[in-house]
Fold this sequence. Notes:
The longest helix has 14 residues, at about 70-85. It is globular and about 45 Å long. It has one domain (about 1-260): Alpha/Beta hydrolase fold, catalytic domain (Rossmann fold). An 8-stranded mixed β-sheet has the order 1-2-4-3-5-6-7-8, with helices on both faces. Strand 7, helix 9 and strand 8 form a beta-alpha-beta unit. The protein is an alpha/beta fold. It has 11 helices and 8 strands.
Amino acid sequence: MIRIDYADVNGVALRYALRESGRPRLVLIHEMGGTMENWDEAAAILADHFDILTYDTRGAGLSEKIAGDVSIDDLAADAEALLAHVGWTGPVLVAGTAIGAATGIRLALRAEGRVAGLACLSPALGVDPAKREGTLDAARRLVDLGVRAATDPRWDVVWPPDLRDVPARAAAVRCRKLGNDPESFAALYRMVAGMDVAADLPQLACPVLFVAGRRDGTRPPEYVRSLAAQIAGARYEEIETGHVMQAMAPEQTAGTLLRFFSSLA
């Protein structure tokens, strides 16, 4: 059974979904521009093995929108406060896509032992300095022109047409993205432009898996592989899919996560 509710934590209202049946606890964090529904298909598979917590991050979906700027530490603090709200006080497993991975990394560093295993899918841990101004320009375009004008020109890069084997799946993810609040979305772009979570990687003490999409034009395999190389013992895998892999290839993504997290038991 899925319980969908709201929590006013860390100064922000978050919408979340909880599936509990006494199994190991797994937190799934979506990407920038997504919502918790982008995890639905993968979560349904994983729920046979784990208790699952998904949520709309600050500024996304039906969670409270962002006024001004936000930091990756704010997002990690949101996650920590939500865990306390639902009573998940012990170690948890975490899987995050893009900035969801960055959030998971910062969450793992907030308290030793809090995260028992971390999967970073298409991780977005910052931007190349040469692309920083372009990222800030993208933030300005979101506010000036709206989400549709910023999304549609790049949609075929985000979700290549030949990977739309389930058209309704791609359409739903696109519509969720178009439903974003431009100011909140822009705040997240500014956040990514100014952060460097990759510098935190050597500090991670928990088991870590990095997963790249072979068709990811945003965070390609060579980038993800270079991140994995910064952590002794980190695992690395690739999936034949694109950037938002949990929504694009839920069966493959869930299978990859299940193998990794089950190996930690």
